[in-house]
Request: fold
Amino acid sequence: MAEPPRADAPSPIVEFRRVEKIYGEGESEVRALDGVDMRIERGEFVSIMGSSGSGKSTAMNMIGCLDVPTSGAYLFRGVNVCDLDQDQRALLRRHFIGFVFQGFNLLARTTALENVELPLVYRRVPAEERKKRALRALDLVGLSSRAGHTSAKLSGGQQQRVAIARALVTEPSLLLADEPTGNLDTARKAEIMELMVQLNREHGITVVMVTHEPDMAEYGTRTIVFRDGKIISGNG
Amino acid sequence: MLWATLVMSVREVRKNALRSFLTMLGIMIGVGAVIAMVTIGEGATQKVRSDVGALGENMLVVSPGAARRGPERTAGNPFQKEDVEAIEREVTGIKALSPTAQSSTTVVVGNQNWPTSVIGVDDGYFEVRGYKVELGRSFSEVEAASGTPVCIIGKTVRDNLFAGAMPMGQRIRVKQVSCLVVGVLASKGQAAMGGDQDDVVLMPLRAFQRRIAGNNNISSVYLQVENAQMTSSVQAQVEDLLRERRRIQPGGVDDFNVRNMQEIADTMSSVTASMTGLLGGIAAVSLLVGGIGIMNIMLVSVTERTREVGTRLAIGALASEVLLQFLVEAVVLALLGGILGILFGLSLSYAATQSLSLPFVISPGTVAGAFAFSAAVGVIFGYLPARKAARLNPIEALRHE
Reply:
């Protein structure tokens, strides 16, 4: 199924090969991705831009193994995701991918610590170690003092930092951020972006971030721009 | 994983404490009703059994006269000593027996008098009826054989004639006979169908026949069967034997009857049992309604938490793990309802049994059954909402407002 990674030239973490994604049929057919080729190497910080309907969200879902191409191939760490079933893709996400969402998506009436522990629960990490690792992740985002607060008692920026802690507590190889600063004011935006840059540089986590703000995209090492289901700039 | 899921579910139930409680209420009332009905029914059954048992354990009473009620009821000839001897000799499965003769009369001590039952008995009577001599002694063999006028009195008779004084060695007058009190019976209390079992004066049968009745008639024979399983066999043997001795043609009407106390107890228990069954059925309907309530609230919960489900799926939860989570939540709701219902039902039946002066018997089987049943309700009615959650598409779930 998957092509084995070559020793001399390690496979990129994300590789799209003529990926097409088509929604609907006949008249109402929508070509969300139209034969996209794309490579993202380990350690990169890639910003993905594009207007709504450009295909950037579809690409993002696909990178996150939430969606599969209609045709073409998507290789994640050299493994063809098209060959995997739903549960196998869930396991890929569990072990290699961290998600940060625009709306934070923290569990309501649940403490920051418990939110951060959640991915470790699915990884069957024992309670003791779960707590230790979650506290370390919260410390990394500067929120260890707020571990016992529920999300309602945290500001937007703090909530997003909890969400980032939740994404990186599993030490993922890839951090996917979908408009992570969309709901924040300017000062908080910078804070979050600096945190992401730090994670990328100091911890070697590959970051892929969707944004529609050019200022935010500039934090990345490369910007890929989508339009009408195709990449128009920034590819390699 | 299951433990972590359980912890998460309990937390989820606590987050919406009022809503969870209202949801549980259906199950709680259903289970509570079942427990209360069964416990009260069980108490009533036991009461009937112990009352009947108090008359005499595994007891048969053989009396002359047809069992039929109504105007054509025939009076049979009384039994004789030979009849009793024949029963003793030929019927197997009898543990103890006593011929008796009885008279309702007023007994007198000094200026006190008291209407009571005077019964002539053999030694076996004490065993059959479960009477024990509390003070004094029972009849000696010489007294039984010779017809000496001695008696043992019940507690009610003692209280009314002697008012706390020691009755032993005193004489009471039964009809024209002066009778020496040699013992007092331990109290047995009220019988099942009314009647004070302590309101009695016992005499040796021989003395009763000779001095009070003036004949050798035996009015009934009390039998104790070895065990409950043998009751009907002994009853049939006695009936066959007496038919033969009294020359009753096949198909003819018996001029005697054998009353089986066990049968009376069984009839009364089966009435209680069918009442319990009926009310249990009604309670089961309320459990069904409770289950639908759980399903309803779980469906609402899945819709409300669509984004949460999306998040869980995105961070790597398997569909089966999401299913398990919601299923466990439904089971936790149902089980909590069940536990509250068990407590509710037990306290309700405790109050009821106390006020009806029935025994309060917790049936572990019923409690375990109610527990298992409420868990089953959780699984059955939680499955559909849980499957709905597990089948959500993570991308759409994350976009859900």
Q: What stands out?
A: The radius of gyration of chain A is 18 Å. The first strand of chain A starts at residue 14 and ends at 23. Chain A has one domain: 42-64+85-233.
